[in-house]
Amino acid sequence: MNPIEPGAHIHGTDPFATPEQARSPIRRFRGRLASPVTLWTAPGPAGFTVSSTLVVDGDPGRLIGILDDESELWEAVSAAGRFAVAPLGPAHRQLADRFAGLMPAPGGLFRGGEWTQTPFGPVPADAGAWAGCRLDGAREFGWGLLVEATIERVEIVGEVPPLVHYRGRYLAD
Asked: What is residue 19's predicted lDDT score, i.e. its pLDDT?
């Protein structure tokens, strides 16, 4: 009798990922910094999950982030000159993965779920907050594009704990 049962084995890790010791030291260091998970959207609509977002207080407030210059989001942001940023919560894990291209999106990224339409781009209706931003400029930065913006509008809807990305996964609630 064959002791091996038929079926697939599900790995707890990505079997195709580059082993940690073979990754660049900079990438390994970056992985040890906890990052908030945000959803950036723009009229079109287009959207992408972004964990490299920084909000700077001031008058006016500013926002910076790193985007892929070849992404549909960057095309939409640069065409519209504006975009929305919503911090995501633990209930948004699948949404974050869908917009990061890690999950299928049958019918499109914005299919499913409820969305609030804003002049800056759609935001998840259950997001606790969002900011509407005006694009000020962008420049190459490492392997990405450093995007600088002025925050023109902030909506605080409710209290949603943050979804945090750390070492390639989301932290547990």
From this structure: 76
